[in-house]
Design brief:
- It contains 4 helices and 5 strands; from the N terminus they run ββαβαβααβ.
- By secondary structure, it is of the alpha/beta class.
- The protein has a 5-stranded parallel sheet with strand order 2-1-3-4-5, with helices on both faces.
Length: about 110
Amino acid sequence: MRILLDESLPRRLKQHLPAEFIVQAVQTQGWAGKRNGELLRLAEQQFDAFVTMDRGLEYQQNLAGFDLALILLRAPSNRLADLLPLVPELIAALKSTPARELRQVPAE
């Protein structure tokens, strides 16, 4: 499974995901600064899932129009220390969320 981390997430998060996942960051793809619609169009061509903390994403875009699983992390901040407790649920969400669906971690 190929996963794209949004530019607001620390790239070190990928070190805490299983080796079965191929994880890239928006910055390493050369896509930093792209607006959400354009970013999602690019991502769906190369990735299976997009992980973000952008809470406005679900209101700004018609997410069903993108062939990606979308995972929205909800944490106090984007610091790695705040994200690490979410990793087990993030892994489960990545494995179970179908394309064109949004899953929040932790689930509400």
